[in-house]
Amino acid sequence: MAYEILDHEADAGVRGIGGTLDEAFAEAARGMFSLMADLAQVQERGEVTIDIRADTLEGLLVAWLGELLRERDVRGMLFSRFEVRIGQDEGGWWLEGRAWGELIAPRHRLGVEVKAATYAGLRVERRGEAYIAQCVVDL
Questions:
Q1: Is the pLDDT assigned to residue 9 strictly greater than 70?
Q2: 50 CB neighbour count, 10 Å cutoff
Q3: CA-to-CA dists, residue 1 to 30, 36, 59, 80, 91, angstroms
Q4: Which residues contact residue 9 at a Cβ distance below 8 angstroms, ignoring those fewer than 6 apart?
Q5: What is the pTM of this model?
Q6: Which range of residues forms the domain containing residue 9?
Q7: Number of compact structural domains in the chain
């Protein structure tokens, strides 16, 4: 699994790459949080769970990243590890996710503030043996 930060004029793009959709979404989250802090400095002291639904996979990605940003703001936490389970039923796509991290502390090397995940550059697709999940995040 891996993530990439993509060049963008005023903001930043994040791309999660994985062998499954679950892994790609988890890596997109890691990519987004890597913009905010050095993930090696973020310890797994707390856990949050996220359950969301969307009509499309692309909408699910934006909702997932948006919920993580909401948790960051409400709890004052940074996250460094993510697990995702994605499925589809008659109501659309669903995601059950978990994120581990800790309260933001002075020892964290903070980067840029990510304000929101956007629909710009949004793509969720299979490429050969890998899946990608990407979008532009508003800084």
A1: no
A2: 19
A3: 10, 20, 22, 14, 29
A4: none
A5: 0.93
A6: 2-138
A7: 1
Structure confidence by residue, pLDDT tens digits, 88-111: 999 999 999 999 999 999 999 899
Predicted confidence at residue 2, as pLDDT, reads: 78
Positive or negative: CA dihedral 128, 83, 75, 37:
negative
- 45 backbone φψ class: left, alpha, beta (φ>0; ψ -120 to 50): alpha
| pLDDT score of 1 more than 90 | no
Query: Which token pair is 38?
Result: 């050095």
| Contact between residue 132 and residue 17 where contact means Cβ atoms under 8 Å apart | yes
CATH code assigned at 120 = 3.55.10.10
Interacting residues of 121 by C-beta distance below 8 A, sequence separation 6+: 6, 8, 13, 134, 135, 136
